[in-house]
Every structure is written in C-alpha cells, then in structure tokens.
Amino acid sequence: MSESTYIDENKLLRKAIKILLEELGPVETSRFLSITNQIRKESVKRHRDWQKNLDEKRFLKEIFDED
Questions:
Q1: How far apart are CA 53 and CA 44, in angstroms?
Q2: How far is residue 18 from each of residues 3, 11, 12, measured CA to CA in Å?
Q3: Closest CA to 30 of 38, 39, 18, 21
C-alpha cells in the first residue's frame, strides 16, 4: 500500500480494534477506546461553558478592532 492510499474506514476500525484486542486484551482495549470519548466530552463541556459566559460583542471587538 502506498502512502496516498487510504483504507476504508470500517476496515481500518476493525483492523485497529483487532490489534488492540490482541495486544491489550478486552478490558484495556475498552479502557483505551473510552479515553478519547471522555476527553471529547470534557472539551465540549468546557467550550459550552466558555460560550455561556461569553460577551459576544466584546469578544468580536477584541478580535476585529484595529488598534
């Protein structure tokens, strides 16, 4: 396979999970797969909290106003 050829996503996921299971076992594979999900949820929550308290006019002024 050359560098510019991509594996179908479903095939890639199956292959990656198979390798994880072989190398880590089912418990650690499950732990590993849930890590990214937990991190993602945290970043989404943090972003929503930031947006909730955001003063949109002030924020846009800080970005686009020239000094």
A1: 14
A2: 22, 11, 10
A3: 21
